[in-house]
Write a structure and sequence with these properties.
The protein is α+β, with helices and mostly antiparallel strands. The chain has two helices and five strands; from the N terminus they run E-H-E-E-H-E-E.
Length: 111
C-alpha cells in the first residue's frame, strides 16, 4: 500500500477516499479508528488513505492536490421553480420545499 493522504480529521480522509474511489482507484483506509485513543495528537496514528498499486500513486496524489488547491467556483443564486424562493447557488435543491434545481440544459426552471 502507498499512502496518498493523512490528516487528523477523519472526515477529510473519508472525503479523499471517496474522491479517489470515484476516479476508479482501489483504496484502503488505515488508522480509521485508532486516532482517537489519545488526546495527544500523534501524526503517525492519524487516519490515512492509501492506494494499493504503485502505478496509481502519482496520479492519485495529483488528484488530491488539485482538489485541495482548486479555486472555489462562484455560483449564482437561483429561483425555485416550485415555490419561488431565492436559493444560494451552491445548493442543488430548494432549502424551503426540497425541489431539485431545474437542469439548465433542458431549458426548464429559472436560474
Amino acid at each position: 500500500m502507498y499512502e496518498v493522504f493523512r490528516d487528523w480529521d477523519s472526515a477529510k480522509v473519508g472525503l479523499v477516499d471517496q474522491l479517489l474511489k470515484g476516479e476508479g482507484f482501489n483504496t484502503a483506509l488505515r488508522n480509521w479508528t485508532g486516532s482517537n485513543i489519545t488526546s495527544v495528537p500523534i501524526p503517525y496514528m492519524f487516519p490515512n488513505v492509501c492506494v494499493l498499486n504503485h502505478e496509481d500513486f502519482v496520479r492519485a496524489r495529483k488528484i488530491v492536490n488539485d482538489y485541495f488547491h482548486a479555486q472555489p467556483q462562484a455560483s449564482e443564486e437561483w429561483q425555485c421553480p416550485n415555490c419561488g424562493e431565492k436559493v444560494d447557488g451552491v445548493y442543488t435543491e430548494c432549502w424551503s420545499c426540497q425541489v431539485p434545481r431545474a437542469d439548465e440544459t433542458t431549458g426548464s426552471g429559472q436560474n
